[in-house]
Fold this sequence. Notes:
The protein is of the alpha+beta class. The chain has six domains: 5-74, Arc Repressor Mutant, subunit A; 77-142, CATH 2.40.50.140; 147-214, CATH 2.40.50.700; 236-448 and 478-482, no CATH class; 495-645, no CATH class; 666-747, CATH 2.40.50.140. Helices cover 30% and strands 27% of the residues. The protein is built from 18 helices and 34 strands. Strand 20 and strand 21 (380-391) form a beta hairpin. Helix 5 (217-227) runs antiparallel to helix 18 (629-662) and helix 12 packs across helix 13. It starts with 11 loop residues before the first helix and ends with a strand.
Amino acid sequence: MGKKKGGKRLGKKQVSELLQNLFQHHPNETFSFKQTFKALKLDTHPLKMLAIDVMEEMAWDDFLSKVSDNSYRLNLKTQVQEGTFRRKSSGRNSFLPDDGGTPVFVAERNSMSAMDGDKVKVSYMARRDKHIKEAMVIEIVRRAHDSIVGKLRVEKDMAFLIPQDSTFVHDIIIPKRKLKGGKTDDKAVVKVVQWPDNEHKNIIGSVVDILGKTGDNNAEMHAILAQYNLPYKYPKNVEEAAEKIDATITQQEIDRREDFRDVFTCTIDPKDAKDFDDALSFRVIGDGNRVIDDSNNHHPSPTTHHLYEVGVHIADVSHYVKEGSVIDKEAYNRATSIYLVDRTIPMLPERLCNFICSLRPDEEKLCYSVIFQLDDEANVKKWHLAHTVIRSNRRYAYEEVQQILEDNGVVDGTGEPAPPATKKNPYKGEYAAELIKLDALAKKLRAARFKNGSVKFDREELHFDIDEQGKPTKAYFKTSKDANKLIEEFMLLANRTVAESIGRVKKGQKAKTLPYRIHDQPDPTKLENLREFVAKFGYKMKTSGTKGAISRSLNALMAAAEGTREQNAIETVALRAMMKAKYSVHNIGHYGLAFDYYTHFTSPIRRYPDTMVHRLLTKYQEGGRSANKDKYEEFCEHCSDMEQVSQNAERDSIKYKMVEFMADKIGNTYDAHISGLTSYGIYAQIDENHCEGMIPIRDLGNDYYDFDEKNFMIVGRRHHTKYQLGDAIRIQVARANVERKQLDFTLADD
């Protein structure tokens, strides 16, 4: 090793690399000079002297530790860290330290076949002039998962799994006896039985499940779930436990609850929903001074000084699902229901989520409720928390309520309530008066929330109409209308109120443990980037001052950009500046909503944190002691992680349907706008159907393009052609790879 091919002697750079490799591959060993020379086959005096000099320099850089005058070892204190490995299909792999430091680049040759999400130990490579900081994986501490999803290829002598995750760099070898009947082009779940090591270069696996043929809708949806290690089947023992639950509501149970069965109550949900976990009740209860019995009055008079009772009734899941039961354990593991494009993967067994707990119309149901007394300005005069029994009068779809509101003079999005009814023009529609009053109160709550600094992000969501075979027939944006906002405001009010009731304590007192929904302030650097970006379009915004001042400035920006060509681009950059909301027992408030205290209480059928909150509130109502903080923080972290994973799966199902929808439109041209930019391509969204694809940089023509990350643009070196976020362009559909969930465009010639 003392000489290179061609007889050239090793220089300082080569000796540095040899030493680096030696110490990194033996992080726990001490090497004397003699052992180092032997290991690296340095057999000439000049090379030995050079190696000693380089080791001395590495010790000055804290890469090595000097053990004695003639021996060194890797400096584990500064050079070895544990964290998470993030694999990218572009090869820009990175290491995220556990202590939350900056991500560090890991080249593929130094990745040790680590997979995305693996817990790894790395050593930092000695810094070279003008080179970025690099790390090398020296140990895989814990695999994120050992199941891989992909497509089988069965040959004469052996079989392979071609992973569907594009970040996975190896095919997996499968012995034929471990195929479980799988054939070429089957989608399969494979368990890894042998990872690469010093002796074995290949990954060997065994088929655990055949999902179906590639391209089959069911197989593809299950493959998305399996890829994220999410369940696509419900365990039999959990289903059986659910079947055994007694759904009877006894008179004894009714007697210990507040009875709302005779009060007008309704559910408002998406038209295809089956799990109704929240309901609203409404009645006029007084004129501000005098309480009146108005339970049978479905048409309260439109005079001003009324008091209204609004009940936010939430399915009492914790009454049926006992802590530690098999159903509870499964619900905790899942932590959330998953909403793919064409199906829901529920957190609870179907019998519970769609039948026993679901607040179906004309059925007696058990609830945990927050009961408010509100005046005409939606000020909360009184409130209390109670276990209740209800009987919903009506199940509405959002569209039905929206129609009733608009039929009575509401113009969506204006924030204005319906005009008062008169004898000549009474309100039209079933329970119209109640719904219109609820809408008016919700609008007051919403206005107060924004005045207080809540950030307004009404992002449109891509939806598909699906035929019986699961094929998408139409793609469109679904917007949140007044009927959606009506429900949203009362849910926010309930969540905030119960969080405050536990978290807000007198000075000197300690608040009891509760899982909060927290949202940190935006990243200041990203906010500054946003300010610089919007300035190019002529907008101004604040990046310093109070939380309220910044959020009001953000709202003013969103309002000013509404309906403009750059709206989507500005919203995208603004969202990037925002932190992710998560669960924690350590409350820091919710920046986006401008609430000092906030939790999730209103959806226990589809979110596990809500069930935890119900149990703790019940315990505290009964005089119980504060729950263990550390234990619940662990629960919160798990729920936050699972929420993120399920969102990724949901996004993948949208991507899949998007590519499937565009697969028969190859060659078609469309008006589009630039929705994202990277160093390897331009993302564009079609204006007509909102499907998004990528134009690879290599397809942009006869120029070399540089990515200007700060200004969100790509610039040609020779011709200085600019492509900027939000720009209108004309595209042609080039490729639609359903399997990879990739849609490729080119710039259209016309």
